[in-house]
């Protein structure tokens, strides 16, 4: 497919999805707009109008977007709303791993009964229950939770932003919450692929705990499998203020390092075997780490890179990103407008691909040793790209992100490798575990030290006034026009899968 047809089609699909989410369309409206679009497409083809193919693809993908949004199941229901504000007993199945926090544990439950009333036949009912820390339950278990059923509400953040919590939970299909719930497991979840993966992850984290002390064990878990449950709110805020929180959540950076290790291990195998094994590892890893929007996006792009390598084809980074974004929005349209992680991940990747290479050309005087020039360009490029969105969503900007990333990022691959070795050694339970974990402890301690130093800097993080949405959109529109009008300095294609 030609470039202009492909990109115009993806853009039309995303824009149509966003419009349909804000202004829901009924089936009659969709049918009418599809009929009008079809007439225009046929007329353009008959009159041999230029770019007819782009028009047809655009109309088709707009129709697909409208139909997909119209098919989204509701997350609330009047029969369920009748229980709001009441103390009820919910029976259901845990549909995700336990999200451990400092003060509570969060459980996403697919509800089947409320006070003995069968609600599974109505529609999928999902409740986010907050219970006491460390419940003895896991993915797939059938549980009974007692508490007061509520609907989530928007709230104001410390930076003065309004956080649309209901829509944020709606991304996961959750329409109700229950605080201070009391939970009892009634049936074991049995054996399933995800349950096995979560069990492996838990054993791995326990192994890290055998070789490292806190908070370095928690940091090792965050670096290698995206686990940040034990970091604690204070240390997590420290990483956020320092501008390096991206290293402790599953991101494209982490997955890129893992794929590089994987390809190095499989370098003597055939390309087909690399594709099959690599794809299986990527899928398992993304599922094991919670299948966040950031992880899924990075996983899709990594799989496409492996596919390009196996087929000896060029890997078009921007096309891979467009495919990943379109597939994810088709699967779950709500992430487009209501998942900040997805938005920041896509925009940061665009900055990494389009802006960072231009920055690198202005820093030729910087040495390439230890990847210094690449780190500087990548950090500045991604920060420029996400800045308007960060100001709109969060309102906090880290002014120390560049020096902190310069000091931290060169050590991250080695910290991940050594932490993985320590975790696997701890899983086996061999003696001298603390000795094996000492090399990774040194690097992890350095990362924590840099984070604390950067976060403690005066005016290291500043809170900025809120920007209206139209201004943010205008900034990105101008940036897109600038990138289109200027010749590209960045390599859009690669023959490698890295």
What can you see in these coordinates?
The protein folds into three domains: 3-70; 78-190, Nucleic acid-binding proteins (OB fold (Dihydrolipoamide Acetyltransferase, E2P), Beta Barrel), CATH 2.40.50; 199-494, no CATH class. The chain has 19 helices and 13 strands. The chain has helices at 3-22, 27-46, 52-70, 78-81, 165-170, 193-211, 216-225, 232-242, 252-265, 271-288, 293-310, 317-331, 335-338, 340-361, 372-393, 401-408, 412-428, 433-455, 469-485, and strands spanning 87-94, 99-100, 105-114, 117-118, 125-131, 142-150, 155-156, 162-163, 176-187, 315-316, 396-398, 461-463, 493-494. The strands form four sheets. It has a five-stranded mixed barrel. Strands 7-8 form a two-stranded antiparallel ribbon. A hairpin with a 5-residue loop joins strand 7 (155-156) and strand 8. Residues 493-498 have low confidence and may be disordered.
Shape: globular
Number of helices: 19
Structural class: alpha+beta
* Most strands sheet: 5 strands, mixed, barrel
Show unreliable segments: 493-498
Taking Cα atoms only, what radius of gyration do you get, to the nearest Å? 24 Å
Helix content: 55-70%
Physical arrangement of strands within the biggest beta sheet = 1-3-5-9-6
Number of strands: 13
How many structural domains are formed by the residues?
A: 3
Mean pLDDT equals 82
Strand content: 5-15%
């Amino acid at each position: 497919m030609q470039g202009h047809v492909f990109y115009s089609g993806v853009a039309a699909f995303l824009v149509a999805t966003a419009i349909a989410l804000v202004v829901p369309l009924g089936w009659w409206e969709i049918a009418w707009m599809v009929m009008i679009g079809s007439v225009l497409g046929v007329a353009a083809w008959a009159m041999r109008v230029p770019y007819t193919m782009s028009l047809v693809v655009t109309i088709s993908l707009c129709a697909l977007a409208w139909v997909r949004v119209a098919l989204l199941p509701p997350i609330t229901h009047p029969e369920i709303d009748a229980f709001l504000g009441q103390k009820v007993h919910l029976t259901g199945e845990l549909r995700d791993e336990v999200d451990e926090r400092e003060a509570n544990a969060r459980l996403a439950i697919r509800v089947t009964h409320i006070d003995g009333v069968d609600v599974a036949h109505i529609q999928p009912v999902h409740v986010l229950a907050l219970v006491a820390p460390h419940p003895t339950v896991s993915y797939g278990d059938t549980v009974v939770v007692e508490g007061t059923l509520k609907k989530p509400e928007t709230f104001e953040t410390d930076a003065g932003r309004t956080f649309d919590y209901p829509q944020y939970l709606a991304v996961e299909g959750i329409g109700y919450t229950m605080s201070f719930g009391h939970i009892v497991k009634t049936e074991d979840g049995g054996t399933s692929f995800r349950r096995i993966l979560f069990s492996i992850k838990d054993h791995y984290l326990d192994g890290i705990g055998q070789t490292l002390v806190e908070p370095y064990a928690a940091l090792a878990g965050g670096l290698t499998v995206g686990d940040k449950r034990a970091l604690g709110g204070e240390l997590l805020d420290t990483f956020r203020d320092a501008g390096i929180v991206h290293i402790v959540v599953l991101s494209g950076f982490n997955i890129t390092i893992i794929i590089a290790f994987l390809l190095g291990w499989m370098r003597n195998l055939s390309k087909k075997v690399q594709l099959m094994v690599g794809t299986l590892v990527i899928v398992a890893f993304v599922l094991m780490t919670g299948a966040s929007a950031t992880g899924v996006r990075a996983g899709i792009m990594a799989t496409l890179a492996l596919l390009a390598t196996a087929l000896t084809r060029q890997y078009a980074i921007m096309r891979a990103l467009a495919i990943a974004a379109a597939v994810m929005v088709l699967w779950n349209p709500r992430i487009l407008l209501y998942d900040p992680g997805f938005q920041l991940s896509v925009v940061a990747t665009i900055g990494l691909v389009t802006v960072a290479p231009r920055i690198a050309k202005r820093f030729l005087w910087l040495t390439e040793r230890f990847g210094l020039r690449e780190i500087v360009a990548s950090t500045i490029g991604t920060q420029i790209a996400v800045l308007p969105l960060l100001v709109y969503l969060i309102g906090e900007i880290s002014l120390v992100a560049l020096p902190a990333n310069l000091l931290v990022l060169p050590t991250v691959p080695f910290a991940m490798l050594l932490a993985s070795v320590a975790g696997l050694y701890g899983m086996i339970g061999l003696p001298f575990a603390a000795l094996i974990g000492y090399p990774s402890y040194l690097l992890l301690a350095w990362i924590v030290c840099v984070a604390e130093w950067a976060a403690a800097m005066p005016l290291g993080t500043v809170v900025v006034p809120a920007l209206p949405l139209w201004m943010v959109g205008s900034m990105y529109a101008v940036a897109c026009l600038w990138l289109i009008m200027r010749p590209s300095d960045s390599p859009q294609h690669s023959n490698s899968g890295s």
